[in-house]
Design a protein that fits this description.
There is one protein chain. 45% of the residues are buried. The longest helix is centred in the last third of the chain and has 18 residues. The chain is built from nine helices and 16 strands. It is an alpha+beta fold and 289 residues long. The strands form three sheets. Strands 1-2-3-4-5-8-9 form a seven-stranded mixed β-sheet. Strands 10-11-12-13-14-15-16 form a seven-stranded mixed β-sheet. The two termini are 16 Å apart. A hairpin with a 2-residue loop joins strand 15 and strand 16.
């Protein structure tokens, strides 16, 4: 499953690893009332964002962005052979779906110049590495890997307190191989790609803006998980480390999408995933591209 979009000087390709029912709606959003769900259920079904059991359908995907100068992978999905026992569809997975999706998009692992991770949760770093004779090695042999320093420092401290398998398996081997760049919030790649600080989901979560002199597209990472959050930007999932901060960050980000008319590219929206954001009442709505 791949989709290709062109905007400005860029080409964006979706690389889908999984698109499945994943979280029960009211389990995912503690502040979601039955009335709110009832009012929005039909629209969510039409968008392919919820199933008949009120379980959100989430897409787990990467974006390959081809700029005039680089081929960039934004977030690296779930990966194979990773210890993720809390999530059976991810745990010790061993399929070729991601490789086939890359190939269908005409992209090989050697073609990626830069890997940028919005944050360091398991489903955003998994294909950073692969097993080679029992050892984790970088999957993209020619790439520099960009990690936000604040995010990296947070998970370093967490891992020192108790092992964090995704950090150990998918992040530290990249650092040990000398392929990582730990960057601050003013980081940019030429005049086409720049970081947008979006803390809340994790302490150092970042979004990524592309466009020369303007935002042509904004990659949201886990700042937004469901189209329901467009109508209710204050609705934060239970796994946000700071739900109040993430709600405020989300509203600022959505305002920026509206003001710039940029493509909004979330990590987990159902296909086709990419949209333009419009204001609607006290919230927002999307126009699928």
């Amino acid at each position: 499953m791949t989709s290709t979009f062109s905007v400005g000087d860029f080409t964006i390709r979706r690389i889908v690893e999984q698109e499945i029912p994943f979280f029960a709606a009211r389990e995912m959003f503690p502040n979601l009332t039955p009335e709110m769900l009832d009012e929005n259920r039909e629209g969510l079904k039409q968008a392919g964002a919820i199933d008949d059991r009120d379980t959100f359908i989430l897409c787990f995907q990467s974006y390959v962005v081809k700029t005039p100068h680089h081929t960039i992978l934004i977030d690296s999905c779930i990966g194979n052979d990773k210890r993720l026992p809390r999530y059976p569809t991810w745990n010790m997975k061993s399929d070729d779906g991601y490789a086939r999706a890359l190939a269908a998009a005409g992209v090989g692992v050697a073609d990626i110049d830069i890997v940028m991770c919005s944050h360091l949760h398991a489903d955003h770093v998994g294909w950073n590495t692969r097993l080679d004779n029992g050892r984790w090695v970088p999957t993209f042999p020619n790439a520099r890997y960009v990690f936000g320093k604040r995010e990296y420092d947070h998970w370093t401290a967490q891992n020192e307190a108790a092992e964090v398998p995704p950090f150990v398996e998918s992040v530290l081997p990249v650092v040990e191989a000398g392929r990582a760049d730990l960057v601050r919030d003013d980081f940019a790649i030429g005049d086409h790609v720049r970081i947008v600080p979006t803390p809340g989901h994790t302490p150092g979560h970042i979004a990524i803006a592309i466009g020369k002199g303007r935002d042509d597209a904004l990659f949201a990472g886990d700042l937004i998980h469901s189209p329901l959050q467009l109508r209710y930007p204050e609705l934060s999932p239970r796994f946000d480390v700071d739900p109040v901060e993430s709600a405020a960050t989300r509203r600022r980000f959505l305002e920026r999408c509206c003001d710039s008319d940029a493509l909004c590219c979330p990590a987990h929206f159902p296909s086709p995933s990419i949209s333009r954001i419009r204001r609607k009442g006290t919230g927002f709505t999307c126009e699928w591209v």
